[in-house]
Amino acid sequence: MPVSEDYYAFINDQLDGIEGIYSKKMFGGVGYFKDDLMFGGIMEGVFRLKADSETIPNFEKYDCSPWQIPGKPIKMPYYEVPQTILEDRSELKKWVQDAYLVAKRTKKPKKKKKSS
Q1: Does the predicted TM-score (pTM) go above 0.85?
Q2: Burial, 10: exposed, middle or buried (Cβ in 10 Å; 0-12, 13-18, 19+)?
Q3: Which residues does residue 75 pair with via DSSP β-bridges, in sequence order?
Q4: Cα gap 41→13, rounded to integer Å
Q5: Rounded to whole angstroms, what are the CA distances from 27 to 78, 79, 101, 109?
Q6: pLDDT tens-digit profile of 6-25?
Q7: Is residue 76 part of a domain?
Q8: Were both Cys, which of 13, 31, 73, 103 would link to 39 (CB 3.0–4.6 Å)?
């Protein structure tokens, strides 16, 4: 599902002023990054943030569940951002900062190249 340009503009406007973040269109959606770590995205037309055991309860309070890749039994650790949070820039900024910290905590170390 392609990303609606209006929705993309709305999300970018809500995130305006959060230092160091950028977006990249990818796989029919949009990824949001900071320090080359993906912390969120627009997936299936919905803005989602990365979550882990520390932040999942914040999403569960709003009955949000992890994103499931369409047609596959795979759930990804990206949760829909509740509309009330999306509309409150200061609260959204906190959620984005939390998602960035999740991305840092869950970053997989790069594999070292074997030398011959």
Answers
A1: yes
A2: middle
A3: 68
A4: 14
A5: 15, 18, 24, 24
A6: 999 999 999 999 999 999 99
A7: yes
A8: 103
